């Protein structure tokens, strides 16, 4: 088998104080020392607000709560010519819900992934199970250190058995030694030494052994219990040394303080092995059964020690068949009895020592490295490039091809004889939220967009249904459109929002220009003219923008209508005035914050400038859109829409989540309008990048679109896609796709995405 030459380990690393850091470092060193390995590097997880003096083997840090740090790491790993990435997984070391940020990194990798799971929960939360499944899906192989882990992964997480390997926890390769020499070095000659090692925390059960010490001393008066290890850093941050001082106080109360020694040290491997060597009995009195791995158990067993332990999962397997002694959880009487028995029975103790040492020879770090290298080689051999979403059927990538075909299956399933439903539960229409003018206006826009060569028109009855919804929404008493309608066709307010009114005007303007039915075109024009005047009273810039888009379409068939030109200049002038009054050198926008459907504002100015031959409008729109395009470009050069968590946040770099299809669709429309205005090819590249966001060129490398049904997820959360596929999302996707297909047919081939310049930080 050809050796895998360059490996990157991703996990905690020394000098960070934790078991994962020790394991990652030990495994990295063992692999690095193996024949045929050119490099074994570490990408280290760094906890919030901490700094570590990492060795040169740590090539990069990931700050656990900073999503962009995971994205940078993915780019580093993809560009580093690594043959495989080995993830060390524990829920507590990664950011996001249930540690979900790591999924962002894994989904972006182009190299095979082998994941070592240090914990496998028997009763995970919904989020924990989801994240674990996503990690397994992204991995070529999942490694656990005990058979119990394999059982749980198949039974609880439904992971295929053939994807799972069991590789025992590694151990140092050291000689089988009697404890007396080490005792002399450390000044414990004549003592019967009991040892527990590890970072102190309440789940370690140290108090159980302390409670047992009076009974142990009655049988073995020279017994000494050494507790070696610093208090866990997280516990220190939360409550200082309260746990340690409480243990010490209990030893004083029991009169055994002279026989319990606390060594507050975090030791290296050589020192640890020396301390293990001096003990007569090693004890792991842990209180929680659900512990898949214990490095200290593996190390003490590998040095050849008689072990007394509670029956957590790892201990139950490693000490089976008489290779150690198992005692009930929290039972100080039984643990004291078994420790005392071993301290006073030299023959039995030595039998256990020899059995442990012999059994553990297959667990040395050298053997672990061999197992991992074989696993890496198999993963590499079976890895033919990650099947990324841009390569799935129906989503061509090569320049010169038309974007994917329209699939209206899910869209039509979201419609009934009233109109388009607002929401869905997964892909099932959610009747409890009824309908709205916003979505049915968008649906009418889609119907008009499909009335072009190369596309299949919607059934006329369906288009008529969307038109009828807008007609019924019109309230002549106040000259406004209602917005929300319940499933039983009751309007829920006399007038909708200004934005919904503006969007209805936009749809009517397009219908007046592009509907296949002459009668419906006349209807749309008449209702447009009745609904337009009230826009004077509106203060919403998005309502103005939507109305301007409708006016631009309406002007295409009613160019001589004086009212149209009047309103175009009125509303465009308002937007230009807003931009002039708010914009600064580093905030080139209409408002102090970025909200939703942002790109529609510059789009409205651009198309209005072109249609009215007013260059100032076009210039203002292009200026704002250039800035918006820059802040919507990620560090990696791909499209990142303004996240909904940015809403209400003034003059700050947009937050990345939650991302919504609406923003991608608006960006495509705006950048194509800009391309139509000045023919700069960067605009078409930006539009193509926004379209590819739907197919996985995004922060999570997750496709939002199912090409088999044409459904579109409602957005991206920091760690997953929103699995619901509502009306707004599917129409946004289909409108975006229709625009890109149209410009491809009539203006040349599909533009391959250009990596754009990342957004600069906003300075204040």
Discrete helix count: 27
| Strand fraction | 5-15%
Radius of gyration: 33 Å
Note the main sheet.
7 strands, parallel
What is the end-to-end distance? 57 Å
What does this molecule look like?
With 764 residues, the protein is an alpha/beta fold. 46% of the residues lie in helices and 12% in strands. The chain is elongated, with a radius of gyration of 33 Å.
Question: Could you give a short description of this structure?
Answer:
By secondary structure, this protein is α/β, with parallel strands linked by helices. Helix content is 46%, strand content 12%.
Fold blueprint:
Elements (H helix, E strand, L loop, with lengths): L5 E6 L7 H14 L6 E8 L11 E6 L3 H13 L4 E6 L11 H8 L4 E5 L8 H13 L2 E4 L2 H9 L8 E3 L13 H7 L5 E6 L8 H14 L3 E6 L4 H7 L2 H12 L6 E4 L5 H10 L2 E4 L10 H9 L2 E4 L3 H6 L6 E2 L5 H13 L1 H14 L5 H17 L27 H5 L7 E5 L2 E9 H13 L10 H14 E2 L4 E2 L2 E2 L12 H17 L3 H14 L9 H15 L6 H21 L17 H13 L2 H17 L29 H18 L2 H14 L10 E2 L4 E2 L2 E2 L4 E2 L4 H21 L17
Parallel strand pairs: 1-2, 1-4, 2-3, 4-5, 5-6, 6-7, 8-9, 8-11, 9-10, 11-12, 12-13
Antiparallel strand pairs: 14-15, 15-18, 16-17, 19-20, 21-22
Helix pairs in contact: 1-15, 2-3, 3-4, 6-10, 7-13, 17-18, 17-19, 17-27, 19-20, 19-21, 21-22, 21-23, 22-23, 22-24, 23-24, 23-25, 24-25, 25-26, 25-27, 26-27
Key traits:
single chain, 764 residues, seven-stranded parallel beta sheet, 27 helices
